[in-house]
């Protein structure tokens, strides 16, 4: 049972963190994987493996990816996708947690999945803001392409090696938090 919990949390955290790059790519990957029987969903989340869910997430993924190539719309999208990423991360972790008590399952999903998605999304938002400021938006398509690749790659890698990706995202989160803390300390001393 303990190995099952660790694997489920690693799968959920890897996909939740991927939501920080793009909201709908990890949901689509999880949905397709669940439909194929590769991604283990709790009983109440079987709807994620349905065709309507796959079609909805697929459509949303295509729209989201193309929208990030429209200058300055990408910055506006960050304000909308930040809470969506937290919700998607929460959903993905909660959908795989083998916890019987619903309240505990959702709180754990919010803290772990929502927190991982929020951290990665925060780094994404800061990167796009810096790109917009330094290049007047001309560098944002490069940032968007990198984020698309990161979301697709990390989502697929999570399914292949869930524990490894969870460790890598944890290290990335620690790295982002350390950099943010250093920047905050530097700005206070200046």
How does this model look, in words?
- The chain is mainly alpha-helical and 190 residues long.
- The chain has one domain.
- It is built from seven helices and no strands.
- The chain has helices spanning 2-18, 24-35, 51-67, 73-96, 102-135, 140-160, 162-189.
- Helix 1 (2-18) runs parallel beside helix 5, helix 5 (102-135) packs antiparallel against helix 6 (140-160) and helix 6 packs antiparallel against helix 7.
- It is globular and about 50 Å long.
- The relative contact order is 0.18.
- The mean pLDDT is 90.
List the topology elements.
Layout: H1 2-18, H2 24-35, H3 51-67, H4 73-96, H5 102-135, H6 140-160, H7 162-189
Helix pairs in contact: 1-4, 1-5, 1-6, 1-7, 2-3, 2-6, 4-5, 5-6, 5-7, 6-7
